[in-house]
Design a protein that fits this description.
single chain, 274 residues, TIM Barrel, 6-stranded parallel sheet, two-stranded parallel ribbon, 52% helix, globular
Length: 274
């Protein structure tokens, strides 16, 4: 009788132990799931892949064709415009604006003389800025692009460094890129050549932020068919399309960290109007 009681107590104790163990284990699993759910939004943000399609040197008749492609693909882009062309082609420039694309300053003349000194450059910048403001009816976006990029050989290095510093001190942000299709290196390069160039660079630059440099000058007609293939490839790879109207402070910080904006500025607190 005593032996049976001992076996019963032993069995009951073992059963109780496993019951408590399973109960505690279930709480642990639930805590892990809750923790994972709390972390999920951050992980999704980190995994988000964004692409900015950018076009320099318009607006022209080529810009109209590019707008057709963007509309067909239901995406938008950012156009770094030449002020003179904005004034000459107001209808096209208005179409760029009305389609929800971003319009930013590139230059007014796109001539080498703007890199003579800081004063010459800023005078040209303000002329283009005025043309854009008259077009949009609102303050000009604080993003701009240097002709030739922030490391252009169009200017002497000491002068270019001074110009970059002046731009940043004015609260502006200069924009570079990490993919180019080289459509500005020759007039109307074959579309296949442009597409192949994109795929070579895209293969090596599948990052969470991509800025693609393209052009919409009169001599960039072949950029139009190439653009369709470029958009298709980016969509298939899961990229979200945004333009520079969409940039908030958080995204701005990410682009700065990736050296796609203000590439040569290491002290970000030097900037104003943040």
């Amino acid at each position: 009788m005593i032996e049976k009681r001992r076996r019963f107590i032993s069995t009951f104790s073992l059963f109780t132990f496993f019951t408590v163990f399973l109960f505690l284990l279930s709480f642990s699993i639930q805590d892990e799931k809750a923790s994972a759910l709390e972390k999920e939004p951050d992980s999704l943000v980190q995994q988000e892949k964004i692409v900015y399609l950018t076009f320099d040197d318009g607006p022209t008749v080529v810009t109209k064709k590019i707008l057709e492609v963007l509309k067909e693909e239901e995406v938008t882009g950012t156009f770094f415009v030449i002020g003179q062309l904005v004034e000459q082609n107001k209808g096209i420039a208005e179409a760029v604006k009305d389609a929800g694309n971003a319009i930013c300053v590139h230059t007014y003349t796109h001539e080498d003389k703007i890199y003579k000194n800081t004063e010459a450059f800023m005078e040209d910048y303000h002329k283009c800025s005025t043309a854009v403001k008259e077009l949009t009816g609102s303050e000009v976006l604080k993003f701009m692009r240097f002709p030739g990029g922030s490391s252009t050989t169009m200017a002497r290095k000491p002068v270019l460094k001074e110009i970059r510093g002046e731009v940043v001190d004015k609260g502006l942000y200069y924009v570079d890129w990490n993919i180019t299709i080289d459509d500005s290196l020759a007039r109307n390069k074959p579309a296949g050549t442009l597409i192949n160039k994109f795929h070579r660079e895209f293969k090596n630059n599948k990052k969470d932020r991509i800025i693609v440099l393209m052009h919409d000058s009169y001599y960039n007609k072949t950029t139009v068919p190439a653009l369709k293939e470029i958009i298709k490839a980016l969509k298939q790879d899961g990229y979200v399309f945004k333009n520079f109207n969409d940039i908030d402070e958080k995204e701005l910080k990410i682009l700065e960290e990736r050296a796609l904006i203000n590439k040569h500025e290491k002290k970000l607190d030097k900037q104003v109007n943040k």
